[in-house]
Amino acid sequence: MKKNYLLLSKEDNWVRPFFKKYKWLLALVLFLGFLTFFAASALMFTSGYLISKSAARPENILMVYVPIVLTRAFGIARPTLRYVERLGSHNWVLKMTSDIRLKLYQAMETRAVKSKSEYQTGNILGILAEDVEHIQNLYLRTIFPAIVALILYSVIVIVLGVFSVPLALLIALLLGVIIFLLPLTAVLVNNARVYRQKAKRHVLYNQLTDAVLGVGDWQYSGRYQEFLNGYNESESLVRDEDKEMNRYSRFESLGKQVIFGLIVIIMFVWAGNYFGKTGEVIYLNWIAAFVLAFFPLIDAFAPISDSVKELPLYEDTVQRLSQLPDTTPPVSKVDDEEEEIIKGSEIIFKEVDFRYNEQSKQLLQNFNLTVSEGEVVAVLGKSGVGKTTLSKLLRGDLLPESGSITIGGIESSELGEEQSEVMGVLNQSPHIFNTTMRNNIRLGNLKATEEDIEEAAHQAGLAPVIEKLPLGLDTVVEEGGKRFSGGEQQRIALARILLQDTPIIIIDEPTIGLDPMTEKQLLETVFEVLKGKTVLWITHHLVGTHYANRIIFLEDGQISMDGSPKTLLEENTKFKELYQLDLYE
Ligand SMILES: Nc1ncnc2c1ncn2[C@@H]1O[C@H](COP(=O)(O)OP(=O)(O)OP(=O)(O)O)[C@@H](O)[C@H]1O
């Protein structure tokens, strides 16, 4: 079902607010836009007069001196004004799109974890590349020219009205067809087509990003040709829509030219009559001036319907953007004093219920867990039981349906930007950026000194890795850290966490995919350097859980086993069995 019309309405918080934000620059841009066409028209007007007057061979050059000067002045003014207007309008648009990009980034960033699962990469790229560009075009190609055309329209009708009211009405009617009727018809005729075209483009985007990200798998499966055929098919569907649109534009353009031709003839006949009836030759010079003055104005009116036709597209863009989460980044409700209390404070899950949506299963049900300061709690449970979800709830990325999750008495979701000062995360796939090794580690704390970085790298066991790099810590590493093994990537992430120096650390299966020896070494380092921190450690393996003070098993939304590794191994038969199984894995 189609939603209410949003673009430029009161609820539109993506396009409309920017009119107010830089309103003076906007007013200047519109005024310059008007002046540009005015200068173009005045240039033709004075030229028309000058040509006619010169053709009558004036006795003295001084007789045409004023029109010569004016022609020169307008000749210079037109491109200059156009240039300044372009500078102004692009400056305005760049300011505005940079604000939109920031807003978009905040919208995605505040819910980074959620957005990744909610939006396909192609969709995000689509928003970034297409939608923001669309809004840019909306201003440059539709809104600015339409407003300038309306101003010109009013001025032309008023000026002609001074000479002849019927003429002014007739021209108002004909120009009205071009700037009101044709654009309206274009929107009505092409509305559905524009939506279809955009939907098909999005399919293309998604297909393409899917293919780029999974190109290896397409190749391995031997179905590359199949993918290409599918892609070509989708592309030809987009092309078909393009063809239809172009056909409409050609007919419309013909209509516009006919109307412009008619206006020129009308102006010619009127000027001939108006100035001819005086019987004086000097007045005849104005005929060409009036007729020629109209020509440059064609450029102001003709593109309106082409650009207005794209309004449904912009509407769709605004609809899509408005579905993004609220963009105000969560403001930390923690003041400095509270932060002191938070540091090293305990984590309490109290009567927490959680499921992702109506259709998904209840992952946590009346879940209670208290992790004391400095405690290392290993969270185990079958795959899909909700271990990672538990860590996302703790980070405040997800909100519980009911119950509370507090860190030192503060709701975790209220931590806002303080979150990164309270919690560090070591997860399955840390991202390594395409910059120096030093910068990659510094990410943990931008204020860290060179010594801090070296110390963290050393503690995380990165010394042998750095030694092998040609420029040591200053070696630029590839994005994704392809040159490093899984264990080495985890050590880089560990160094970041050490720099971050938070009282709470969430460890989410960083050793997944590592061989047992590397896993053992990594865990040794991790728990050695994280001594004294409060740790929530999500893991599949029982082996190694001796690093934890306490192990809990998650089952059916609650804790089914809870105890120290030692007591569980001694007293709990089920745990003993699982431990044996894990040993032989
Ligand atoms: N964004 C989401 N929307 C809906 N369901 C989700 C979402 N994210 C995860 N789930 C589902 O919630 C369940 C728990 O996921 P979670 O990742 O917490 O499990 P896990 O215990 O960490 O699993 P594993 O050990 O395999 O990593 C799974 O069935 C998963 O499919």
TrEMBL record:
<dbReference type="InterPro" id="IPR027417">
    <property type="entry name" value="P-loop_NTPase"/>
</dbReference>
<dbReference type="InterPro" id="IPR003439">
    <property type="entry name" value="ABC_transporter-like_ATP-bd"/>
</dbReference>
<dbReference type="InterPro" id="IPR017871">
    <property type="entry name" value="ABC_transporter-like_CS"/>
</dbReference>
<dbReference type="GO" id="GO:0045454">
    <property type="term" value="P:cell redox homeostasis"/>
</dbReference>
<dbReference type="GO" id="GO:0015421">
    <property type="term" value="F:ABC-type oligopeptide transporter activity"/>
</dbReference>
<feature type="transmembrane region" description="Helical">
    <location>
        <begin position="169"/>
        <end position="192"/>
    </location>
</feature>
<dbReference type="InterPro" id="IPR003593">
    <property type="entry name" value="AAA+_ATPase"/>
</dbReference>
<feature type="transmembrane region" description="Helical">
    <location>
        <begin position="143"/>
        <end position="163"/>
    </location>
</feature>
<feature type="transmembrane region" description="Helical">
    <location>
        <begin position="24"/>
        <end position="50"/>
    </location>
</feature>
<dbReference type="GO" id="GO:0034775">
    <property type="term" value="P:glutathione transmembrane transport"/>
</dbReference>
<dbReference type="InterPro" id="IPR036640">
    <property type="entry name" value="ABC1_TM_sf"/>
</dbReference>
<dbReference type="InterPro" id="IPR011527">
    <property type="entry name" value="ABC1_TM_dom"/>
</dbReference>
<feature type="transmembrane region" description="Helical">
    <location>
        <begin position="62"/>
        <end position="81"/>
    </location>
</feature>
<dbReference type="Pfam" id="PF00664">
    <property type="entry name" value="ABC_membrane"/>
</dbReference>
<dbReference type="GO" id="GO:0005524">
    <property type="term" value="F:ATP binding"/>
</dbReference>
<feature type="domain" description="ABC transmembrane type-1">
    <location>
        <begin position="27"/>
        <end position="313"/>
    </location>
</feature>
<feature type="domain" description="ABC transporter">
    <location>
        <begin position="347"/>
        <end position="581"/>
    </location>
</feature>
<keyword id="KW-1133">Transmembrane helix</keyword>
<keyword id="KW-0547">Nucleotide-binding</keyword>
<dbReference type="InterPro" id="IPR039421">
    <property type="entry name" value="Type_1_exporter"/>
</dbReference>
<keyword id="KW-0067">ATP-binding</keyword>
<dbReference type="GO" id="GO:0005886">
    <property type="term" value="C:plasma membrane"/>
</dbReference>
<feature type="transmembrane region" description="Helical">
    <location>
        <begin position="282"/>
        <end position="302"/>
    </location>
</feature>
<dbReference type="GO" id="GO:0016887">
    <property type="term" value="F:ATP hydrolysis activity"/>
</dbReference>
<dbReference type="Pfam" id="PF00005">
    <property type="entry name" value="ABC_tran"/>
</dbReference>
<dbReference type="InterPro" id="IPR014223">
    <property type="entry name" value="ABC_CydC/D"/>
</dbReference>
<feature type="transmembrane region" description="Helical">
    <location>
        <begin position="258"/>
        <end position="276"/>
    </location>
</feature>
<protein>
    <submittedName>
        <fullName>Thiol reductant ABC exporter subunit CydC</fullName>
    </submittedName>
</protein>
<keyword id="KW-0472">Membrane</keyword>
<keyword id="KW-0812">Transmembrane</keyword>
